[in-house]
């Protein structure tokens, strides 16, 4: 049986103080800041912490929390298949920069997300420029 999801693309982590946590991740853990922005009332930073998924620090996510976001080829098809097996998302799909996304919880309450990369490269284009790295707000 093939895996339901594609790759684990993002770890979406809540922070109660983005500037403090960003300093910890960069100075103590050696993370590279890929982008850092404040828009729509939220502060979010994308970090390269490992060879794995991009690590997103976000002050609009509850702290502590970690929401793994898995990429799927076709969100509608994946949701239809999952629903047939008893899956229930938390509400309607939402838009994240790469594309539409569903958030859901496993039976123990752990959050997960699936998204379709409908806008490949948008995060890098919109937030990856040198003027956006290390942005304060």
Order of strands across the widest beta sheet? 2-3-4-1-5-8-7-6
Detail the poorly predicted runs: 129-137
What is the CATH class name? Alpha Beta
Q: What would you call the shape?
A: globular
Q: What is the helical fraction, as a range of percent? A: 10-25%
Distance from first to last alpha carbon: 47 Å
Number of E-type strands: 8
Helix and strand run:
EHEEEEHEEEH
Give the integer mean of the pLDDT values.
88
Question: Can you characterise this structure?
Answer:
A hairpin with a 2-residue loop joins strand 6 (94-96) and strand 7. The N and C termini lie far apart (47 Å). The protein has 137 residues and is α+β, with helices and mostly antiparallel strands. The protein is built from three helices and eight strands. The protein has a single domain, classed as 2,3-Dihydroxybiphenyl 1,2-Dioxygenase, domain 1.
Short recap of the structure:
The chain is α+β, with helices and mostly antiparallel strands. It is built from three helices and eight strands; from the N terminus they run βαββββαβββα.
Relevant terms:
137 residues, alpha+beta, 2,3-Dihydroxybiphenyl 1,2-Dioxygenase, domain 1, eight-stranded mixed β-sheet, 3 helices, 8 strands, 20% helix, disordered C terminus
